[in-house]
Amino acid sequence: MGETDVRSTREGYDxxxxxxxxxxxxxxxxxxxxxxxxxAFAELVQASGLPVIDxxxxxxxxxxxxxxxxxxxxxxxxSPEMVALARRDHPEIExxxxxxxxxxxxxxxxxxxxxxxxxxxxxxxxxxxxxxxFHRMLATGGHLLLCFQADDEASELAQPxxxxxxxxxxxxxxxxxxxxxxxxxxxxxxxxVAPDEDPIRGFHYCHLLVRKxxxxxxxxxx
Length: 222
Hints:
The protein is α/β, with parallel strands linked by helices and 222 residues long. It is built from 6 helices and 9 strands.
């Protein structure tokens, strides 16, 4: 994101952190499709033995779920207030403030990256560099699970919508998949949840599971 986008998004989530944490603390309980894709991601990533980062972790409840699934995970978020809540509620997990394209991670240092609704605030023209950063951080065979509000039939890459916290975009599923391919990822699976399943906005919600390189980690999936 550009400096202005980063600042406005950080300030918006800082101001809304407590309300956001209360409102969405049970969101995994209420979304079985999310749990299914997260479970598949965790199973694939475990074979690497490498660290995992939850990018845009918010108050940390999904990071905790990833830890319960057996992943050596830490959380990163743009908002200091969100990170403070995550540290308070999940003291056994490491959380830090950071921007997704500028993390202090060695090349190929991660077995997995998880991003749940964190790219929706990224200006569409900055998505290629974001996905390039994700690709750099992942080891060959590493997996990225990218989750976002979507339009399954859109011809345009992104359409702004009235997000309560900061400017946000719902994204073309095919457009995002194409950018991930250009960044060097191979698609493993996708799940697109119907708009009627979203009681808040009535949008499609997409989970795209991709892998760096064509091969899985040795031993993945038995």
